[in-house]
Amino acid sequence: MAWDTEGTRRRLLEAATIEFAERGPDGTTMARIADRAGLNKERLYKYFGDKQALFEVVLSGELEKLAASVQPPAGGLEDIGEFAGRTFDYHAAHPELARLLLWEGLADGPVADEANRTAHYQNKARAYAAAQRAVDQLPPGYKSVFVLHDVQGYEHNEIAEIMDCSIGNSKSQLHKARMRLRELLHEALRAQAREDRKAASADSGGKD
Fold it and tell me: Quick one: 22 and 71 in the same domain?
């Protein structure tokens, strides 16, 4: 009988996701993961290599699921709010992802799938910059980090480092920057509303 390679891989990844989310990479073992999957430990090593490599595969896979389910805003500041809401809903339905990200930060090891994550978050930053339309002094990278912080409830220091916008360890600085971001978003919304009114007035021949 042929071995179900894909089925075996899926069972191992599911078991690893549960173990890593519950215990972190330092708190579990390859043996525990294999036992949870009901498979031989040697098969786990064969498919994924060592434990760190397996953790990176698990985290990268979960992030890919998030990216596929919640697309960045296509345009318009209102879309950013919608995007934040959908991101929040996704994390509420998949709490294991937030735990995996927390464990990654606590482990203080290499960033999983750094190149692809860098490109992904830079694309988000560009989407925010295009949507905002207002000129401000806050780099778009901060916008991405703060939206993630607000909907997930913790500080994304690793993502901040990836995007070259380190927010440091000062909670007061983080709070001030986030408040400034919200002010800028409100200013941009008001500016857009003024533009919309002008356009509507022009279309109607200046008659209200």
Answer: no
